[in-house]
Design brief:
602 residues; alpha+beta; Methane Monooxygenase Hydroxylase, Chain G, domain 1
């Protein structure tokens, strides 16, 4: 009944232009409750298959089965048509730019992929116009290309969405808008809009009584420009002479009112209750925001105890109001104050390492809380680090003190005292002073002990020097004595008194050993050995001489005076060589006695 009680007049023209083949296609179907108008521009180069016709036929066929004006239905039509083009592609991939217009004779909605265009004119003015899905349109939207330059821009046919693409298509689907009697809808392909702008189409509408007149006027404008090359061009014009009016509208409105009034009353009651609750909620929100504002002020004033209380109240209200995002935000600030207060308490309790760790955690939390309290945290971190440094210096000094490195310990205590004084760290300063005083006392005691020890050592060294001097004198005396005795040994050796020489050498050697002059003792050892050898040699010779004497005595007793004299002379030579003076004298006496006897005989 809607179609019969409305009047939509459609006329169109579709020509190949300068090309041999027309790749454009337009078709429409006006059903009882819905009408669909579809225009397509084939943008492939396949000469066997008409992509625009395939796409339009697919959409109209599926629309006619179960017509609808819903967004999801139009999106579904595009997906089916896209699959149809992909499935039918043989030699070349089939591609098409397409615009759909759907109406229920009261309202209208359009949808498109590519750069075919929809326009709606009302009372001589352009009321609605579609946008292309092209790179040029993106540049226009970013104000890099002027709107009136689209028709000639080099990227106008560079489409990011079209039928026949493998990727998921994203069609533009407009909202529904109400039609009025006298509205004019136009659909066109690029052969029209590249050469005829909307103002010229609007001129073509002037004084036109029928859709065909508009089509004729626009085509005449196009051809009058006498372009050398004209793309396939298609223009469809739909005159909305009369939209559908529901004859039962008054009864329907009355029935709706009877149904709606009780609902309105119920809604009013519900609204009143809701309003009261809403107002209370708004008051609670204001209270929460006020608490947060106060807390932030306290944070700026570094009054973290009060800030913590205010954040806690705000957090409680956020939980009651179930404002999850707000609760999370406030919780960040609340936890920040918790960490700062915990760190401050550790600092006050002199647990400086724990305080340092907690201030570091607070610093991390401050990042998520707009860096509130960041300056305070940084100052406390610096101060805590310096306090720890003071304590470390004291501990280091203690260790050096245990190792008896008093100078090193004193230096550490002095540094700790200076740093503690600058920080007004009274306890550490007092501790450093006490430990320095202890070191000074210890050093004073050690100095006193050292003085006494040095005095004792000096006295001992004096005694030792005296003893050493005495020893040196004794040693020198012994050395001189040894030298004299050694010389006596040399004299005895030189005169052949080897036994005396050996005795002197041994006495001198013992003296040298006593005074540890071992090199002289070694030299005497050689002389002792040599003397011993001489003694042995003299003993052998004496034994031989004694044998001569014994034989001589025998010869003398037997009256053989000449042989006895010869043997005595041999013995005398040996005794003289051995420097045995006594034996030599005895031999001389015997020789004299023999000489006297020989002379007497003669």
């Amino acid at each position: 009944m809607r179609k019969m009680n409305s009047k939509f007049i459609t006329n169109f023209i579709s020509e190949s232009g300068s090309s041999l083949q027309n790749k454009d296609y337009f078709a429409f179907v006006e059903l009882d409750k819905f009408a669909i108008y579809v225009i397509a521009d084939g943008i492939d180069h396949d000469t066997d298959l008409e992509s625009a016709k395939i796409a339009v036929a697919s959409i109209i066929s599926n629309f006619s089965t179960s017509p609808s004006i819903s967004r999801s239905f139009l999106s579904k039509l595009f997906k089916i048509a896209n699959k149809e083009l992909i499935d039918q592609s043989k030699n070349l991939r089939l591609k098409a730019s397409i615009t759909i217009v759907v109406t229920n004779y009261i309202k209208v909605r359009y949808a498109l992929v590519g750069n075919t265009r929809f326009s709606l004119f009302r009372e001589g003015f352009l009321k609605h116009q579609s946008k292309d899905q092209s790179l040029t349109q993106q540049l226009v939207d970013r104000e890099k290309v002027q709107l009136d330059k689209i028709a000639k821009h080099t990227e106008r046919n560079n489409l990011y969405c079209y039928l026949g693409q493998d990727e998921k298509i994203t069609p533009y689907i407009s909202k529904k808008f109400k039609l009025q009697n006298g509205d004019v809808i136009t659909l066109c392909t690029k052969g029209i809009w590249e050469n005829i702008d909307s103002e010229e189409i609007k001129d073509g509408l002037v004084d036109a009584k029928e859709a065909q007149e508009v089509v004729d006027n626009v085509e005449e404008m196009l051809l009058s420009k006498q372009h050398k090359d004209i793309e396939n061009y298609t223009l469809a014009v739909i005159f909305v002479d009369k939209i559908y009016q529901n004859p039962k509208r008054k009864q329907t409105i009355k029935r709706i009112l009877l149904t709606v009034i009780p609902i309105i009353i119920l809604v009013a009651v519900i609204f009143s209750v809701w309003y009261v609750k809403h107002q209370k909620r708004l008051e609670q929100i204001d209270e929460m925001n006020y608490a947060v504002k106060n807390a932030n002020s306290y944070m700026e004033d570094e009054n973290f105890i009060r800030a913590n209380e205010e954040y806690k109240n705000a957090l409680k209200l956020a939980k009651q109001l179930k404002l999850e995002d707000k609760r999370k935000d406030i919780d960040q600030y609340f936890k920040l104050t918790e960490f700062i207060l915990a760190a401050d308490k550790s600092f006050q309790d002199a647990a400086y390492q724990e305080a340092l760790d907690e201030y570091l955690l607070a610093e991390e939390r401050a990042y998520y809380a707009d860096n509130l309290g960041k300056d305070y945290i940084c100052k406390k971190l610096t101060k805590t680090n310096e306090y720890i440094k003071v304590l470390d210096l004291l501990t280091q000094g203690d260790k050096k003190k245990e190792l008896e490195d008093l100078e090193g310990a004193k230096e550490d205590y002095k540094q700790a005292r200076t740093l503690a004084a600058n920080l007004f760290f009274k306890e550490a300063k007092k501790e450093a002073d006490d430990k320095l005083n202890q070191i000074f006392e210890t050093q004073a005691e050690k100095e006193k002990e050292q003085e006494e020890q040095d005095k004792t050592i000096a006295e001992e060294e004096k005694v030792q020097a005296q003893e050493q001097e005495k020893e040196e004198k004794e040693k020198l005396s012994t050395q001189m004595n040894a030298l004299e005795i050694s010389k006596k040994g040399d004299v005895s050796y030189s005169i052949g008194s080897y036994h005396d020489a050996k005795m002197y050498y041994i006495m001198a050697q013992e003296m040298y050993k006593q005074i540890e002059m071992y090199s002289f003792a070694d030299q005497l050892e050689k002389k002792i050995q040599l003397t011993q050898e001489k003694i042995q040699q003299a003993t052998v010779k004496k034994a031989k001489a004694d044998m001569y004497v014994e034989d001589a005595n025998s010869k003398f007793d037997n009256g053989n005076l000449n042989k006895a004299k010869i043997l005595y002379l041999l013995a005398k030579d040996i005794y003289e060589e051995a420097q045995l003076e006594d034996q030599v004298k005895k031999i001389d006496e015997k020789i004299k006695a023999i000489d006297a006897l020989i002379e007497k005989r003669n």
